[in-house]
């Protein structure tokens, strides 16, 4: 609301708005969208679609679209509840200080209500549109992210992202179950791929954002164990991840096109992780360094997962 509107109101004896009320009046649709963490949601939706497409049973397109909307909504709900709970530490970190809640553009109560409404709606609609198993796993993914990762692990252990990474590994499994109504080995493998991908992906981020985490008191691995130990962990989990990505081909659930691509992409990932391991910079205080190996590894890790799952889908339709 502009000064030209506020001044006449005050002149006629109206009560002045508080600073918090003024900020909330500036809330836009973009702020509500930001609560949903749309960049994270894009990867969630993409992996869920991949899980749905590689399933042996084709899903009705309308039901499939509804299932994807439910998965996206659940991811957004988790993000909103996460921002509500983490508003105190978000305010202390430069990377998150301008989020809608710490910046005062959305109230904590409003964000929580928004998140809970979306979470409940997504689970109910998934049950009605597809099957109960998909809805149960969807509800479990929300609960795991909110209660296990956000409220417990994130603030209590430097291994938070290892265990908490399971929350982001559910989408392809949910996509598969929405199509088939059952679980099998392949969706578990898709879950495992993202589970082992998450630590090198997120620890690469934490290396160049360690000052933020330290300021907020979040026990991320670089803060507790130091940069050198974190670099070793990035390398170790990358080496664990690559064989896991080959299992769909080795066990006969995917073809050689996927297997060759997974090996090539994995070797490039190992190279990026090796550069992180060999980097001897003091990470503290260099978060703006654009060519930091950890930053490059983080960016590649996102591209890696997009290509890997894209090839997996293409491999199914190529047929060898």
The fold-level CATH name of the largest domain is Tetracycline Repressor, domain 2
Number of separate helices:
16
SSE succession = HHHHHHHHHHHHHHHH
Strand content: under 5%
Estimated radius of gyration = 22 Å
Sheet with most strands: none
Query: What is the share of helical residues?
Result: over 70%
CATH architecture of the largest domain: Orthogonal Bundle
- CATH C-level class of the largest domain is Mainly Alpha
Uncertain segments of ≥5 residues (pLDDT<50)? 1-19, 282-289
Shape: flat
Kindly give the count of domains. 2
Question: Helix- and strand-based class?
Answer: mainly alpha
CATH homologous superfamily of the largest domain, by name? UbiA prenyltransferase
The count of strands amounts to 0
Topology:
Elements: H1 3-11, H2 19-25, H3 29-35, H4 38-54, H5 61-85, H6 87-90, H7 108-129, H8 132-150, H9 160-164, H10 166-180, H11 185-208, H12 210-216, H13 221-224, H14 227-250, H15 256-278, H16 293-318
Helix pairs in contact: 4-5, 4-10, 4-16, 5-7, 5-8, 5-10, 7-8, 8-10, 10-11, 11-14, 11-16, 14-15, 15-16
